[in-house]
Amino acid sequence: MLLVARFRLLIATLWVGSLWTIGYVVAPTLFTTLYDKVLAGTIAGSLFHIEAWLSVGCAMVLTGFLLPIKREDSAKITLLRLIVVMLICTVIGYFVLHPFMASLRASAGPAGVMASDAKMQFGILHGISSLFYLIESLLGIALILKLR
User: Fold this and answer.
1) What does DSSP assign to residue 68?
2) Which of 46, 82, 105, 122 has the fewest CB atoms inside 10 Å of its own CB, making it the most exposed?
3) pLDDT tens column, 89-143
4) Which residue from 113, 108, 94 is spatially nearest to 46, judged by alpha carbons?
C-alpha cells in the first residue's frame, strides 16, 4: 500500500511539476529570449501539446489507482474531484480553446501579422486558456498536498 501511495505521489508530482515548469518557466523564457515571436509561439505550442497529453495520461493513471471508490471514502473522493477538475481544465484550455487559437494564428500567415479583430480574439482566447491553466496549476498544489 505504501508503494502505491508513493507511486501516486510520483505521478502527481510529474504532472504538476511539468505544468509549472512549462507554463511558468519555459514558455515565458522562450518569449523573452527568442527574437522571433512566431517561433517562440510555435515551440510553446508544441510544449503545451505534450503537456496536455501528459495531463490526460497522469489523470488516467491516478484515477485508476483510486478506483474502486466507496461513498464513505471522503479522502479518495476529494482526490478524485481534484483530478477530474484538473483534467477538465486541460480539456477546455487545450483541446477546446487551442484549436481556435491555432486557426487564428494560421490565418496570420508566415509573418505572424494578424488582423486587429483576429488579434483581439486570439488575446481573449489566450487569456481564458491561461486562466484554466492557472486554475489547474493551483489545484495541482492541492493535489500534491492531499497525497502527502
Assistant:
1) S
2) 46
3) 999 999 999 999 988 888 876 666 777 888 899 999 999 999 999 999 999 999 9
4) 94
Give the list of residues 6+ apart from residue 13 with CB closer than 8 angstroms, or none: 144
Task: State the Cα–Cα distance between residues 94 and 31, nearest whole angstrom.
Answer: 19
pTM of the model: 0.91
Q: How far apart are CA 51 and CA 136, in angstroms?
A: 12
C-beta of residue 85 within 8 angstroms of C-beta of residue 50: no
Cα 130 from Cα 137, distance rounded (Å): 10
b/e map of 40-62 (b: 16 or more CB within 10 Å)?
Answer: bbebbeebbeebbebbbebbebb
CA 7 to chain centre: 21
